[in-house]
Design goal:
This protein has 321 residues and is an alpha/beta fold. The chain has two domains: 3-138, no CATH class; 156-319, Rossmann fold (3-Layer(aba) Sandwich). It has eight helices and ten strands. A seven-stranded mixed sheet has the order 5-6-4-7-8-9-10, sandwiched between helices. A three-stranded antiparallel sheet has the order 1-3-2. α3 packs antiparallel against α4 and α3 crosses α6 (218-231). The longest helix has 19 residues, at 87-105.
Length: 321
Amino acid sequence: MLKQFRLKGSSLEAIRKKAETRYGAGARIVAAEKVTNPGIAGLFAANRFEATVEVPAEPPAALRAGNPERPTAAAGPVPETHPGLHRPAIAALLEQADATEQRLHAGTGTAVPRSAAVPVSPAVPVSTARADFAGLLEQLGKEYGPVAPAVGRSLPASVPEAGKAPTLLAGAGDLVLLLGLGDDALGPALEMSMAAGGCDVRTGGKLSAFGHLHIPDRQGATAARAGAVATGQTVLLAFGLGRPRDVAGHAALIAGFAADQIWVVADARRKPEDTAAWLGVLTQKLGVDALAVVGTADTLSPGTVNSLGLPVGWQDGRKVH
């Protein structure tokens, strides 16, 4: 019979050495989590690792003498990093992320915020561009099971009656889409990230922003999800729809992202009839969950957004209760 113990450390290698010292050569890491202190909107983040170590039934003398570590069984089952994901690929991703981070910032003497814009030498390959990372993504796909078709989201037969908006998803690896004309989606995405304690804010479509990685397609979204699972973050994708006449052309790409939640950013200063027209194009092809509204303080008729038939969950920098 095998026993399990919980260990903490600054890296997986440190935990591995600690496990061998305390429990002998037979100890092995069977699960790992990278716990991130998100700081403020992703700045000044700090990371540590927690791992589950499996030990043979007959412990070494050091353990029989009385080791301070407690079996995880007493505290209940070890929580999963992300529902449905098995551990081998996750542990490998964590180890790879840790090793890459150490190579990039070796010798600095200080922790470098993950979200800060730091020049990287071309000689150091980006982890997501390496062949082994691609293999891990493939393994993740096999362990996670087949990806649900993009049309799997239930689509309303018509614009639903506005009710209470759902809570913004905040799970590790969740993908939340914010769709807006021009650059409307970026502001709410950054505000939501700050309110949530720091998310991985990306851009897509016709929107780009300095310091934020761009997701061009479904493969890029899958890579972003995998990275967010490792860092314990949610991916907020601010997608630029361009102009109203461009909206229909983006529908297939947006559906291909297979997002866990979709928000539409509506500007209360625009004519409600104009907003309803392009929003109707989206709701015919996508399952839209809620509205994030901007510009209500700069119009004499902020309530016109309520006629769009979707619940308002975010308004001018704050959550709507």
